[in-house]
């Protein structure tokens, strides 16, 4: 049995990232390879694809094949559906949750200086980028929001420690490709409050400002430069 060839075929055919355990369970019960064998196969496959336009990527929820960075503008022309675009208000809300989690809706509003519309929270929940992870032990027990593995997968991250630093976000040139940045110390999680945008006039809500906001692509706005085109 050639474990490497079978693992490669499983990943190529899968329509989602696969963990080592999920890969093992794809084999017949009496032929399941051990964890070390699967990991060695994954390492070999990654080396085989190192110089190809397709690579093996480890994400928060497992391994998957995906198109290399820089090639997505060509590949996306194969798909009729246009990439989803999101308002600045939604992206600011997502960024606050990512950097300050766990956080309540009220705390998000305090940071942004405007009310957070229910539709923004609902959209993030429906996309499975955020979830309710607990309830704060204060009167009313408001929900505490945090990000999900789907959020990490979408932005090509394996953990929250890989989020760009605030310096990288502030210095990101949204009109051009990001320039290489020196290695940053991720030991301390950055505080989103340091890069807050000017708040809207008092009492103004997201719904009132949405018409004037420019819609931005979620990946570009986040400054992550993620390439998340997968092969199915």
TrEMBL record:
Specify the superkingdom. Bacteria
Q: Which Pfam families match?
A: SMC_ScpB
Gene Ontology biological-process annotations: cell division; chromosome separation
Polar residues: bias regions: 202-212
Look up keyword Cell cycle and say if it applies: yes
- Region annotated Disordered, chain positions: 172-232
Asked if the Swiss-Prot or TrEMBL record annotates the protein with the keyword Cytoplasm, the reply is: yes
UniProt KW keywords: Cell cycle, Cell division, Chromosome partition, Cytoplasm
Family matches, as InterPro entries: ScpB_csome_segregation, WH-like_DNA-bd_sf, WH_DNA-bd_sf
Q: What is this protein called?
A: Segregation and condensation protein B
């Amino acid at each position: 049995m050639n474990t490497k060839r079978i693992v490669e075929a499983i990943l190529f055919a899968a329509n989602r990232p696969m963990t080592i355990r999920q890969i093992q369970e794809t084999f017949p019960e009496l032929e399941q390879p051990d964890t070390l064998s699967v990991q060695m196969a994954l390492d070999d496959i990654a080396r085989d694809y190192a110089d190809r336009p397709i690579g093996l990527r480890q994400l928060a929820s497992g391994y998957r094949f995906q198109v290399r960075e820089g090639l997505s503008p060509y590949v996306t022309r194969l798909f009729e559906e246009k990439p989803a675009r999101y308002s600045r208000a939604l992206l600011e809300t997502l960024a606050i949750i990512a950097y300050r989690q766990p956080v309540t809706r009220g705390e998000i509003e305090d940071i942004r200086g405007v009310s957070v519309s229910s539709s923004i929270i609902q959209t993030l929940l429906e996309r499975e980028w955020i979830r309710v992870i607990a309830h704060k032990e204060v009167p009313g027990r408001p929900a505490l929001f945090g990000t999900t593995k789907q959020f990490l997968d979408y932005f090509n991250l394996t953990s929250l420690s890989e989020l760009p630093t605030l310096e990288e976000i502030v210095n990101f040139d949204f009109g051009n490709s990001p320039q290489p940045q020196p290695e940053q110390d991720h030991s301390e999680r950055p505080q989103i409050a340091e890069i807050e945008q000017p708040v809207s006039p008092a009492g103004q809500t997201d719904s009132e400002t949405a018409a004037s906001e420019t819609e931005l692509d979620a990946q570009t706005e986040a400054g992550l430069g993620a390439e998340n085109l997968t092969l199915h």
